[in-house]
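Form 7-S
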Amino acid sequence: MLEIKLDDEELKALYLAEVQKRLDKIELQSMLMDAKQLCKMLSLSWPTVEKLFLSDPNFPSIRIVFAACHNVAIQS
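Output:
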């Protein structure tokens, strides 16, 4: 007969450590910012940012729109 015992606390610690690793990896690969933050980071005006980056179809971007009922709609 095979008996397996799991320590719930140890299992939870392993799970949380793995989740944190994956979150850190995602954080390194992506950055979310609003228009003002982007302009400040690039030291460019908003029209210049639009002309150089946002009009390029190869530039990856996600627009998040908050509706009045607080549902989130994501538009590409």
